[in-house]
């Protein structure tokens, strides 16, 4: 749809089979204080992959090395009103995975999430808001397929 905002998300796995998530600042208008994946809006003149690389660097300090696979595509509407169309990618990055550089004022903490910790992603979300949990679960499944590949 022409009036949808275009978004991208990055699912970043470490060597131990965990996924990177960060907590949004409590002052953010959209999903304050919630755990989320790296990503954001595609800006004018950008391709989705350009936006993916930019968001990874802005939110972690890491660099996009390669896209492993598309994990999923979703339409959703946030608590701020606009409809969004999001594509999520399992990616590999370069940089020190033990020392991400969070985007000041936007993310306040991070963690490497094990698959049995997915319920944590529902913290501070409205009842029934399980899309992020579903996206990360799909990322774990894609990473398993890739390792088995």
The helix fraction, in percent, is: 10-25%
Order of helices and strands: EEEEHEEEH
The CATH superfamily name is: Nucleoside Triphosphate Pyrophosphohydrolase
* Portion in beta strands: 35-45%
Oligomer: single chain
Averaged pLDDT = 93
End-to-end gap: 35 Å
Number of domains: 1
> Total number of β-strand segments?
7
Strand order of the largest sheet: 4-1-6-5
What's the SSE blueprint?
Layout: E1 5-12, E2 19-24, E3 35-36, E4 38-41, H1 48-60, E5 63-77, E6 83-94, E7 107-113, H2 131-148
Parallel strand pairs: 1-6
Antiparallel strand pairs: 1-4, 2-3, 2-7, 5-6
Please give a structural write-up.
With 149 residues, this protein is an alpha+beta fold. The chain has one domain (5-144): Nucleoside Triphosphate Pyrophosphohydrolase (Alpha-Beta Complex). 21% of the residues lie in helices and 36% in strands. It contains 2 helices and 7 strands, in the order E-E-E-E-H-E-E-E-H. The chain has a 4-stranded mixed β-sheet with strand order 4-1-6-5, with helices on both faces. It has a 3-stranded antiparallel β-sheet with strand order 3-2-7. 31% of the residues are buried. It comes from Actinocatenispora rupis.
